[in-house]
Specification:
Rossmann fold; single chain; alpha/beta; oxidoreductase; NAD(P)-bd_dom_sf; SDR_fam; oxidoreductase activity; 7 strands; seven-stranded parallel sheet; NAD(P)-dependent dehydrogenase (Short-subunit alcohol dehydrogenase family)
């Protein structure tokens, strides 16, 4: 694990989605430890209560909200109080490894809403604040499934390819305004996102050979280190990057 850098985010306000567990929680904790004022949002109140208790001595505001919904986005932006220096789009869901002929409308629409629309809506909402400040950093958590087609079901794979395109477009359009937009692409991470091996596709992909050669499961803190680096001024010359943080999984 990398070392905490005290004061790296002092004076900055950071919004983190999916902050109640997994990568989002680890990111919120690290940002708070490095001096940020953190606006932490999740759909589960109990998770946020636990986070707030862990960070009782830090400047943390929790917001129970679904950021795929405009009202949820508005609640998060209101809690930020007119300033957002950093945005970590972490919240995401899986798709049960369903293929195109298996996918149902409800699963497709919910995966797209959480993994793509929520990213767009919250990014859209904070950009005016960043434009006004002339600076900002946005990091979205994608997936190595956004780099190829053999890692997940059709909805999840499509959603993660979509946020790669969203990241690249935003990075080009907002770089002249002092706003950096990047993406971290994890492989397997020890989180509470459900990924049942429900289809023949998944069973075939994760056969005996793949189980031998895929890298070990990462800890959320590994991803938090990459996310906070991209959010920080340490990566001041980095924008439009699609950074695999997957132990080499995408190189297989």
């Amino acid at each position: 694990m990398s070392q905490i850098t005290p004061g790296r985010f002092t004076g900055k306000t950071a919004v983190v989605t999916g902050a109640g567990s997994g990568i989002g929680r680890a990111t919120a904790v690290r940002l708070a430890q490095e001096g940020a004022r953190v606006v932490a949002t999740d759909v589960v109140a109990e998770r946020l209560d636990s986070l707030a208790a862990e960070l009782a001595d830090a400047d943390v505001t929790t917001v129970v909200a679904d950021v795929s919904d405009e009202d949820g986005v508005a609640a998060v932006v209101d809690a930020a109080g007119g300033r957002v220096d950093c945005l970590a789009n972490v919240a995401g869901i899986m798709d049960k490894f369903l293929t195109a002929h298996e996918i149902d409308d409800a699963t497709w629409e919910r995966v797209m809403a959480v993994n793509v629309t929520a990213v767009m809506r919250l990014t859209r909402a904070v950009l005016p604040l960043m434009l006004g400040a002339g600076a900002g950093s946005i990091v979205t958590v994608g997936s190595e499934a956004g780099l190829r087609g053999s890692s997940a079901g059709v909805a999840y794979t499509t959603s993660k390819h979509a946020v790669v395109g969203f990241t690249k477009s935003c990075s080009v359009l907002y770089a002249p305004k002092g706003i950096r937009v990047n993406l971290v692409a994890p492989g397997a991470v020890r989180t509470n996102i459900e990924a049942p091996m429900a289809s023949q596709f998944a069973a075939e992909r994760l056969g005996p050979l793949m189980q031998v050669v895929i890298p070990p499961i990462a800890e959320p803190e590994h991803l938090a280190a990459a996310i906070t680096w991209l959010l920080s001024d340490d990566s001041a010359n980095v924008t439009g990057a699609i950074l695999p943080s997957d132990g080499g999984w995408s190189a297989l």
